[in-house]
Amino acid sequence: MPHEVLEEVKVNVKFFSIIGDDSIVTAVYTVNNSDCLDENGNHSEEVGISFLRKLLKIDETTKIVETWHYRQNRNHFGTTGTTYDGAKDIFIDPQPHSSFVLNSENQWEPNSPKPTDGRDYYWNIHTESWIVKLPETTYTLGEDGIVLDEDGNPLEID
Asked: Which of 15, 17, 97, 156 is 20 to 30 A from 119 (CA-CA)?
C-alpha cells in the first residue's frame, strides 16, 4: 500500500508568553498571524506584542516575549512555569529534580556525569546516582532477596 503524502499544516497563530516580575511565565496567549504583520506584510514580534498589549490592556512594564514550539528559537516553548532568561533570550524548563543542574546548553541534567564504561545507565532521583540498566529479560526475586535470572541463577551485576 503506497504511503500518502500529507500536506504540511500551517498554524495561523503566534504564541506570546507573559513574563512575571520573577522571570517566570505566568500565561501564554495566541495572536493571529495577521495581527503580527508590519507595514510591509512581514512577521514582527513587536507588532504582535503591541497588539496583545492593546487587547489585554497590559502596560509597558510587563514583559511579553514570543515563543515557539520548536527548540531552535529561545531553547524551549515558554509555557506557564518556565523561566525566561532575558540575558540569554531563552526559556528554561523548571528544574525536574534538585539533583539536576543546568548544563552549558541550558538543558537540565544529573549533577554527576554518566559513567562511560559501555553499559547502559539511568539516573535514579531517589539515590541521586546512576544505576546500571538490567538487560531485557525476566527476573525474579529469590526468597533471600537475591535477583535471579530466568534460569533461577543469581544475577551478578558489577
From this structure: 97
